[in-house]
Specification:
alpha/beta; 12 helices; 14 strands
């Protein structure tokens, strides 16, 4: 799947993923009114407003981008109706040729991770048939329960030719409470600086240990040149990104935190390899709610998706300019 993502990036010239993270406050009033008139002010009405919002944005940007990243919590808040729209969104994006990264952040003990992996990436046995659940191309995975919480996902990736992005250094302000904690020398790492299964040679932050584990896991799940096991590293931490890029040379990095969270093109150069690949940058509300920004206010709520398209083009230019200056 990583090879398909790379082909999409090369075709569009845009290492960009649009985060489809709809909140009702982002959805223009005319879409909400139409959905509520048909379905009432119900969870079904809210979900249908989300669908109408998603579809119009997808229709306006799919030719510019390689991938989308729907955040499942934004759909779960509307219960079963929201999950139906999540699935509908996944299917529609794939029909448009987009790679779908399900931002689900799953990670649990072995048997539970197996079920999550099957539900989102694989196929479940139903009598004599194998049936797909949500069927995303990649999902995000939380590694902090250890290898037995991650390996079931890798197994399904190998079977189904899918991929995962493992949380390493996340973009939220409090991520450092745990991820930046210093690990004492002598703690065994999955891929220490003295080799796989070795001993760490210096005190360093936990996110580096996790990054080394990602590199180790990824070695068993390679595409042509990059691994199907990638990493999540926030744009808001460019220096950490520089270190992690070196620790994970074959891992694609999913970079959240661009735009609304403060990340900008100039922060991103170190996330990419010399081949111009190795990273894909996410923007969510900076694109889907662009019409609310002063820069794009001229489009108005009626033309919100045109504002989203303009925001994608501006982001593409910003990233290209930053990479050109490396």
């Amino acid at each position: 799947m990583i090879d398909k993502l790379i082909r999409n990036i090369e075709r569009t010239g845009a290492p960009i993923v649009v985060g489809l993270d709809p909140m009702l406050k982002y959805i223009p009033e005319h879409l909400q009114k139409r959905a509520f008139e048909e379905h009432g002010e119900t969870l079904k009405g809210a979900a249908e407003a989300v669908w109408a919002f998603n579809k119009e944005i997808i229709d306006h940007v799919y030719d510019l981008i390689p991938a989308v990243k729907p955040q499942i919590a934004m759909y779960e808040q509307f219960g079963i109706e929201g999950l139906l729209v999540f699935q509908r969104t996944v299917e529609y994006c794939k029909e448009k040729g987009l790679i779908v990264i399900g931002d689900v952040k799953r990670g649990d003990i072995g048997s539970t991770s197996e079920a999550y992996a099957v539900g989102h990436l694989g196929r479940v046995q139903v009598g004599s048939k194998l049936c797909s659940g949500f069927d995303e191309d990649f999902i995000t995975v939380n590694p902090y329960l250890g290898s037995d919480g991650v390996k079931p996902f890798i197994k399904v990736c190998q079977e189904e030719k899918k991929g995962i992005f493992v949380l390493v250094k996340t973009s939220n302000p409090s991520s450092g409470e745990f991820q930046d904690r210093i690990v004492r020398a002598g703690i065994t790492a999955g891929a220490g600086r003295e080799g796989a299964g070795g001993i760490t040679t210096a005190d360093r932050p936990l996110y580096e240990i996790v990054g080394e584990m990602v590199a180790e896991w990824g070695a068993d799940c390679m595409g042509s040149s990059y691994s199907n096991v990638g990493a999540v590293v926030g744009a808001t931490y460019p220096e950490q990104g520089k270190t992690l890029r070196k620790l994970m040379p074959k891992a694609f990095i999913l970079v959240p935190g661009y735009g609304a969270q403060g990340g900008k093109g100039a922060d991103l150069a170190h996330f990419f390899n010399e081949d111009g690949l190795g990273a894909i940058v996410n923007s969510s509300r900076g694109i889907i709610a662009a019409y609310k920004q002063e820069e794009y206010a001229k489009y108005g709520a009626e033309h919100f998706a045109e504002a989203s398209r303009a925001a994608v083009l501006a982001m593409k230019e910003d990233i290209a300019g930053a990479l050109a200056k490396r």
